[in-house]
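Tutorial handout. Part one gives the primary structure; part two gives the three-dimensional structure as tokens.
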Amino acid sequence: MSATEVFALDIGTRKIAGLLMSPTGDDFVIKQASLYQQLPGAMADGQIHHIDAVSRVIKMIKGELEEASGTPLTSVAVAAAGRSLLTESGTSLMTLSPQQRLTTEEVRALELEAVLNSIQKLASANGGGVMDSYLCVGYSVIQYYLDGEPIGSLRGHQGNEARVEIIATFLPRIVIDSLGTALDNAGLKMESLTLEPIAAMHIVVPPTMRMLNIALVDVGAGTSDLAISAEGTIKGYGMVSYAGDAITKGIADTFLLDLTVAEKVKVEMEPQQTITCQDVFGNLLHLSYEEILEAIYPKVQTLAEKIAQEIIRLNGTAPKGVILVGGGSLTPELAPLLAKHLDLPENLVRMRDRTSLEIVKGMPEFSGPEVITPIGIGCTHLDGRAMQLIHVSVNGRQLQFLQMASSTVGDALLHAGVNPAESLGRPGPAFTVELNGRYIPLPGTLGKPATLLCNGEPAELTTPLEDGDWIELIPGERGKSPQVSLAEFTESPVHSFVINFNGSPLKIQPLLKVNGQIREPDYILQDRDRISLQPITTFQELFDYLEIPVEQEIHYFLNGRSQVALEQVELFINGEKRPLTTPINNGQEVNYRRKSVTLQDICQPSQENTPGITIKVNGVELDLTAKTSTPLANGQEVSFDYVVRPQDRIQYEPRPAGALNSYIVTDVFRDYEPEEAFLQRGGKILVNGKEAGFTTPIKHGDILEFQAYGAETENS
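Part two.
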């Protein structure tokens, strides 16, 4: 075949369609077409079950087209069914250095790293071995982000962080292998491969329409394949294992028909028409359109419901419209029921057939919605959008994968399981620290780029690939994380003071704290450190920094009750007593001491003493001297300048100045000692002839008598 012609083959569950196409200007021409039914049991749900049976039908189509065109056919463009597709999202993040402007190479590496992330996620979900079991057949960028904000393109931009989200599509290798074997048996080489929903979307929904959120549904015999477009790209693929065969089976079950007869009834049913056929018992049936519709309506309802559910799963919500292609799209009532399930107007769920393809000419008899996919396969190939099997070597490892029109060295690295970012020698991971509430990025060191060769010549990730290329990657070295000390970060030296503090020089610098802890200037910063830089400006702040308490509690007991007194620091600057709020200045002579707590501070002694009195005791005149309140410390009399110490037990009860009855009998014992007999035997105490006790009040001029027991007997 010439480079301007293609043999396109659509291998469906019930039919195989082949056609010869060529481009003419901006249009495409169908030169020849051939359509054959699949042999029974050859395929199920879009998957080849019997390779030989499929090969036999392919040979018949190939022979028919060769005879009609007079041209031998050796290669073919085919498509894989949507049921085989797997999709997985992926993300990648790149920390940028200051002044770094993103290049095309770096953006490409970021995208491919996101694809690698999708492969890792797929492997995790499927027990590993994804690259051995699946082929990545393409990816679409969902969104770029710069510093967390969506952006249309990253190339040429600066920032702190770049991120990309992609959706990647995968095919099982067994699908490719079975297709390849069936074609080999028919004497054909797989020239290119696309995906059935991509092929249909390509011809029905051109790129100019893909800004719209549209769902394309290819309703075949065994499966209903889906593709979703939005924002200029195909955002997802899906499949429903329910399609035209379910409708055919509904007819067969209701009217007891052979499946072949039921399929004929389904295809030929039209309003106001009656179809005559025989059931499996030989009975002649005359089926009206209404009878057939009633029989299949529950199946159509189920088909519409399943398709709507899959569309919403893929899209997240109902799309703006739905396009139906494939032979199953002719099913009566499918379009309005699907519109109902998606809550869309009926005019936004429409079937498309050959008549809607203005760019496709030739063979008008090759028409209907079922021909959309084979035409799409041919157009995709001629537009250079199909994939081809390519054989390359990466670091000596032989690889085979599907080559797209834009396949690059980066794709080969990806299929080899190599992170494309390794070829960039990326900078070390950056840090972000916080200084007094302000976030500041700290870049890592620059990396050492890798050596990337293609066929022995320097290459880039974007270098195009050819079959047989050999690639060599000598990994670079990633940069290191930043190594910045606290002093370097704060641009030391900073303003400081030197004072003479209690006889020794003291240098005072701003207070540096990291995560609430004081750190030395040589501390190496870590990611997310919170730094505070606080100058020390007053002596209060200095004492706090030096952890010198300006108050110290003294716990003691006063008259049996626990009490607390505070020893406070006294500050002297250049010999003058000053408050702690005094500002610090260079060269100050600073001394401090702690002021002791005395009894004078805590006892508040009486300012007046009780005056002296004169009395008579046992006939002797006695002058009692002025009486004072004397404090006791730990049982010992002390003066009021006594320094209180922790746990001291203080006793002090001041007498009110000028109070009446300020003297009692026991006060006599300060200046008078009773007779020995009174002390030994006890006795009576008389005040002015009346019996009294030790606490009886006495006053000036009173007469006291101390009479020992037994004294009256001795006197008699």
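Part three, for discussion. The chain has a mean pLDDT of 83. Residues 139 and 328 are 29 Å apart (CA to CA).
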